[in-house]
Design brief:
The protein is α+β, with helices and mostly antiparallel strands and 105 residues long. It has one domain: Alpha-D-Glucose-1,6-Bisphosphate, Chain A, domain 4. It has two helices and six strands; from the N terminus they run E-H-E-E-E-E-H-E.
């Protein structure tokens, strides 16, 4: 697998600020940068036996109507391949934290 994974999710009837608050509550110490006004969050994931660490970028946008779209991308820091699917696991763990969403991409 390559050293990054990204996907987008659609959440019906969810306030973007609620998702930002969940991120702060669950990943507070891992947050490198946050711009609540733009709905952008950058996380740092630590070293494990499968990876030298990853950067996770989250973009939360209010869609037309009562929907929220969340784009999540996880990328390895110092390696060319993602051994064990760590990036995919990061993206899916954050998506699961936000609740039941529809996968867009």
């Amino acid at each position: 697998m390559f050293a990054s994974y990204e996907s987008s999710f659609l959440y019906e009837g969810v306030n973007p600020q609620d998702l930002i608050d969940k991120c702060k509550k669950n990943y507070g110490s891992s947050i490198l940068k946050m711009d609540e006004g733009k709905g952008e969050i950058r996380l740092k994931r630590g070293i494990s036996w499968l990876s030298w660490g990853e950067r996770v970028n989250i973009k939360i946008e209010q869609d037309a109507g009562n929907s929220t779209v969340v784009h999540i991308k996880s990328k390895c820091l110092f390696q060319l391949f993602d051994f064990g699917g760590v990036n995919r696991k990061n993206v899916l763990a954050i998506a699961k934290l936000f609740g039941r969403g529809i996968v867009i991409t």
